[in-house]
Structures are given as C-alpha cells and as structure tokens.
Amino acid sequence: MFSVFKKLSWFFKEQWLRYTIAITALIIVSFIDLIPPRLVGMTIDLIQFNELTYEKLMEIILIFAGIIVLSYCVMFIWDYNLFGGAILLERKMRSKMMRHFLIMSPRFYSKNRTGDLMARSTNDLKAIMMTSGFGILTLIDSTIFTAFIVLMMGFTINWSLTLAALIPMPIMAVIVHKYGKIIHQRFSDAQTAFSNLNNYTLESIRGVRVTRAFVQEQADKQRFAELTDEVFQKNKAVAKMEAYFEPTVKILVGISYTIGLGFGTWIVMNNVISIGDLVTFNVYLGMLIWPMFAIGELINVMQRGNASLDRVEKILAQQPDVVDPKQPQEIDRPEVIRFEDVTFSYPGSTDAQLSGIHLTIQRGETIGIVGRTGAGKTTLFKQLLREYVPPNGQLTINGYQIDQFSLEESRSWIGYVPQEHILFSKTVKENLTFGCGEKSEDEVNHILESASLKSDIEALPKGLNTLVGESGVTLSGGQKQRISLARALLMDPEIIILDDSLSAVDGKTEANIISHLKEERAGKTTLIAAHRLSAVKHANQIIVMDEGRIIEHGTHEQLMENGGWYHDQYTIQQMERKVST
C-alpha cells in the first residue's frame, strides 16, 4: 500500500523542507489538541472538590484562548505547506506528461488513445495529488496522532482502561487491509472505464457531422449511455467498498466506547481514577474517531494514488523512437539532401513502404512528388521530418546522416503543411504566427497575398482577429489549407514541404499560389506532393512514385517525352480541365 510513497520519493526529497515543516507542524498540532481534554477533566475535578476559584477559572480560560490561537497558527503552516506541495506535485507531473507527449513519435499515439491520455492527465493526476496531500495528513493522523492519544490515555489516566478500550483496534486493521486490496482493483477498473468513455466522447464530438449525415444519432446516444452506465457501475462498486469503512469504524468505536464507559465507571467506583479522568478518557476516545476514519481514508487514498501512479508511469515509461544524438552536428543551412538506397517500413509492418529511393536535392530546387494514392509520398516526407527511426540506407544532409542532427535543429529548417490541416481554437492571426512568433501587419498581409487568402480574411467578421473555432470549423477546406500554407511561409524556412496542400482550391487559385511560391521560395528548397500535376509542372525535378518506389524521374518536359504514367495522367487532367471549363 505504501509503495506509492516510495515511487514519489523523488518529489519528497526535492521538497524535503516543505514536507518537514508540514509534518512537524502536524505533530505539534496533534500534541496541542491533547491539552484541552486534560484541562476539562482537571476543571471537573476542581468543581467536584469545590476547589475552583475565580483566579483558577480565568487561568484555565486564558490557557484555552492561547491554545486556540497557537493551534490556528500551526494549522495554517501545515495546511499551506502540505497542500501547497500537493498542488506543486500535480503541476510537475502534468508538465512532465506534456513534455513527454511532445517528444513522443507517431507510434506512441497509434498505441494510446487520446481519451485515455486525457484521463491519465486529469483524473489520475488528481488522485496522485490527493496522495501527496491528504494522504500525508491521514498517515500522520492515523499513526502519530493515534499514538499520542493512546499514550496520553495510558500515562495520565489508566493503562488497564486504555488497553481494554483498544481491544477492537486490531480487528479494524485486518478488515481495513482487506478493503484496501479490493478498492485498488475496483478503482483501476473505474479509471479504465472512464478512459474508454473519454475517448468515445472525443471521437463522437469530432465525428458529429458524419453521425448526422448517416442518421446515427440514436445509435451514438445508445452507445454513450452504455459507456456512461459502465463508468457509473464501476465507480458505484468503488463507492460501495468505501461505504463499508464508516459503519465498520463506527461499530468498532462504539464497542470501544462501551468498554471504556463500563470498565471506566467500575474503576471510578473503586477510586482508581476520578470522574474528571473518566470524562477526559471519553473525550480522548471521541478524538480517536477521526484517526480511525483516517486509517480507512489512508487506505482509500493510497490505493487510488497507487493505481493512478501506475497508470501514469506506464505512459511515462514509453520511450520515444527518435532521440537526439549525444554529440549533434551543426551546420549553417542544408545545402544538399541525399536519399541513397533508402528503404523504410512502418513499425509492425512486414512490407516496405519505401524501397531503394535514390534522390539528390540541391538547395533552391523545387521537387515535385506525384503518384497514386498510397504510393509513398507522405512516407518520404516523414523521413525528413524524423517521425520514425532512420530508414535503412543513407539519408544525409550536407554529407551527415540525418540522425546526427538534433531534432530541434533539423525540424527548425522545415516548414510543413500536412494533408490534415490542424488549426487551433484561436484567432486567424494567432494561427498564422503559431510557428514564427509576432509578425508585422505588412509581413502578414504580404504572405496572405502569396497564399491568395487576403480577400477571404477581409470577408471574415473580424478579419485577422476572427476566431476560427474548434479545428477551424468556421472555415472552408480551401481556407484552412491556405492558412496552413501561409503559416509555413511566415516561418520562411530553408525547406518547405507541401503534402497535397492545394487539393481543396480551384485551378486558378492554385496557379496564383504556385506563381507566388516561385517568387517567395527563390533560393530555398521546396518539396510539393500533389495529385494535380499542374502544381508540380514548374519543378526542377519531378519523381513519380508507385508502391514505395521511384518509377519515373525528370523534368516535366522529360517525363512527357517518356510517355509513362506521368504523361498519361497529365494528358487526362488537361482534358478534364478543358471539359470543365
């Protein structure tokens, strides 16, 4: 059960001063809380023997007042440090999770569902926070505070009465231990069910248009209801086990009270202790109720925290496929990119998605990459983006293997416009300047002209300050594509990769964008993958891919003379264009 503290030992060592102060203050408060019951007993004895004077009464009242003030100050100290530390741990763990997510490769996200990652980043971190805050509190109260009370009862009142009243306690320890094991398993199951619900909800919201188009609202509601009910039942099972703690503790404390009152009355009658001592003893027994509950809460919190920490550590234990070299190379800029007999397979795949790729790209060239759907165009780009471990063969930049550069440096050269255009729920301007920081209005307007986007932005309600909504929901497909393109152009990268990034615009707009690209990208490398061959007609080199291989390579004129796939496809597209106009 206490293994969760061992797993969090790195944090407790880091924050040793904070937790030392908190625990010390907790112990002091525990001791201070034992004084008032003793004063009550003494006062009752003074009243019984007619020894209570006005001066003694005022002295007792002043002591009580002092204890209240002192207790308040010390409680503030432990509360601030203990729960402040818990919040700090949650922040550290959340930041650690976020850093981990940012360095992980696509393979990680294919293995772990988004909803599950969100659940571990929220509910599980809350449970861990509770362990480092409320868990420490219940640990101190269920051990040290309990020990103080028992010692106070034994040494200041009567050991026989104390031991008799504590007979039910070992029974509680056995029962609580059994409850804890069951809670750990049930809480893990509940968190898994919540992850499933989280993931389904996310997918349902993303796919709401498709759900409506296929009239599947009722089926979606039914599935959601089933998952919600599963989460409800799993958490109900946890709550059911937790509910056993309170009545168990109450029964055992009631037995202690019965023993204490019965045996205590008998020894009072035999003049072993005074009435004041018996009253004090029963107050101490009442004070034992919270520590007894604390034992149950401690088991509950520890098991929840342990289960959640295991889930979080399972994610953090997964290592990225691509890492920085120990001694990275540095160059001013990429002059020559070479693919020499490059072969690549996705993790878990037995087939090669790239085979025997030979390609040399000089700085300032425009490279067109065309081919059927699934030919390997995007996979080729992913090698430059270093989303996977280096492929077999030689992929070099300025003569150095690509994995000899740091990820930050190699990716800083590249502006990437993917097939899926990801926009954030921010303004148009914030999306445009996402990769480059603040830009002047003239710079932004110039790029908008280059991306044939200026008139579209001016037509929006607030222009550049218009919120685009979740994933750019308020924009058309063509507008999203062009904002993604403008975002990459604003970075002014050494290499820009356009992965079929003009498919949603018409031919005239495409021609206008290509014309501006020639001007904007003069002297810098541009890679364009496209299905419309007019987008790559101007390229210095064009490669045709099929099943991961380069089957044609040359300029537009050379490929047209070859009479291969490129010639046939270009001719068909030109005929379609004439028919449509």
What does this protein structure show overall?
With 581 residues, this protein is an alpha/beta fold. It has 2 domains: 3-316, ABC transporter type 1, transmembrane domain (ABC transporter transmembrane region fold, Up-down Bundle), CATH 1.20.1560; 336-580, 3-Layer(aba) Sandwich (Rossmann fold). Helices cover 64% and strands 10% of the residues. Strands 6-7-8-3-9-10 form a 6-stranded mixed beta sheet, sandwiched between helices. A 4-stranded antiparallel beta sheet has the order 2-1-4-5, with helices on one face. Helix 3 packs parallel to helix 8 (134-156). It is elongated. The mean pLDDT is 85.
Quick take:
With 581 residues, the chain is α/β, with parallel strands linked by helices. It is built from 23 helices and ten strands.
Key attributes of the depicted protein:
single chain, 581 residues, alpha/beta, ABC transporter transmembrane region fold, Rossmann fold, 2 domains, 6-stranded mixed beta sheet, 4-stranded antiparallel beta sheet
Helix content: 55-70%
Strand order of the largest sheet: 6-7-8-3-9-10
What is the name of the CATH superfamily of the largest domain? ABC transporter type 1, transmembrane domain
**Main sheet characteristics:** 6 strands, mixed
The termini sit apart by: 74 Å
Low-confidence stretches: none
Rg of Cα set: 36 Å
Protein topology:
Elements: H1 3-7, H2 9-14, H3 16-32, H4 35-48, H5 54-103, H6 106-111, H7 114-132, H8 134-156, H9 159-165, H10 169-206, H11 208-213, H12 217-269, H13 275-287, H14 289-316, E1 336-344, E2 354-362, E3 366-371, H15 377-385, E4 392-397, E5 400-401, H16 407-412, E6 414-417, H17 428-432, H18 441-450, H19 454-459, H20 477-491, E7 495-499, H21 507-520, E8 525-529, E9 541-546, E10 549-554, H22 556-562, H23 565-580
Helix pairs in contact: 3-5, 3-8, 4-5, 4-13, 5-7, 7-10, 7-14, 8-9, 8-13, 8-14, 9-12, 10-12, 10-14, 12-13, 12-14, 18-20, 22-23
